[in-house]
Structure formats: C-alpha cells, structure tokens
Design a protein that fits this description.
Order of helices and strands: HEEHHHHH
Number of domains: 2
Number of strands: 2
Number of helices: 6
Strand content: 5-15%
Mean pLDDT: 78
Distance between the termini: 68 Å
Radius of gyration: 26 Å
C-alpha cells in the first residue's frame, strides 16, 4: 500500500469515527408514487426525498403543470387555445401564446424530420374509437398533411 493510499484511507477512517461519535445516521429516502389519469392518459410520477411531504409536494406541482399544459393544448377542452384555433379552421386568425406557437413550430419540424410519420393534424381526422384511414398509415398520410 502506498503512502498516499494509507493517508487517503486514514482520512476515510477518521471521518467514519467522527460520524459515529456524533450519532450521524444516513437519512432514509422515501419513494412516493402517484398515479393519475390526465390528458386521456395514465401518468405515474415518482419522487424520492427524505421528507415524504416534500416528495408529494413535488409530484403535486408536476400534476399542476400537466393540468396547465392541458388547458392550453387540449382539443377536448372548449376553452383551450387549440380549440380556439380549430374553431377558426382557417377562417380567421387566432392569437395564441408564444408557448403554443413554439410547440406547433416544433411539432411541424418533427413532422418534416419524420417525413410525416408524426403528424400534428392526425387527431383532427380520427377521434377515439375510429379505426383509422382505409389503407392504414400509408392511406392516412395521403389524407393528412403537415405541409
């Protein structure tokens, strides 16, 4: 064992003795899981913290953010910005927040990058329970258009 290794080990040993002498014990982290239905989907959030209440508060804050996002983008909520855009359906301009504008811009970019495999307009054509377009995905691509 080298002098450096012995010195390093001695520091660790001294630290352990000091910790035991003052009664320091390792904190036991709590794992909190919370499952909720949001935006038509199942969300399971997990937080780990030494304080269970703090972990739950973090999860609750995350769910509040999910609710906020849904209030902006959900086409199922009449009061959302997305519903206002859909109601106008190209008839007149609709002012939207910078957040929604940026989201749409990014979604269109992903549509281009995936050659339409991801298409922002998909949900407007098929609602829950529909089986999709005749001809499957290829037929759907002909009917849709992110362009």
């Amino acid at each position: 064992m080298t002098t450096h290794s012995r010195r390093h080990g001695a520091w660790w040993g001294a630290g352990l003795v000091c910790a035991l002498a003052v009664g320091v014990s390792p904190a036991r982290a709590e794992t909190v899981r919370d499952v909720r239905l949001k935006m038509g989907s199942r969300f399971e959030l997990t937080a780990v913290h030494v304080d269970r209440a703090a972990a739950q508060a973090a999860i609750d804050a995350a769910y509040l953010e999910i609710d906020r996002i849904e209030s902006v983008i959900s086409s199922w909520r009449e009061t959302s910005e997305t519903s206002a855009v859909n109601r106008a359906a190209g008839s007149y301009p609709v002012a939207v927040s910078g957040e929604l504008f940026e989201l749409i811009r990014r979604a269109l970019k992903v549509s281009v990058l995936t050659d339409g495999a991801f298409d922002l307009t998909f949900a407007g054509h098929w609602r829950s329970g529909d089986r999709g377009p005749p001809g499957g995905v290829a037929g759907g691509r002909r009917q849709l258009g992110h362009q």
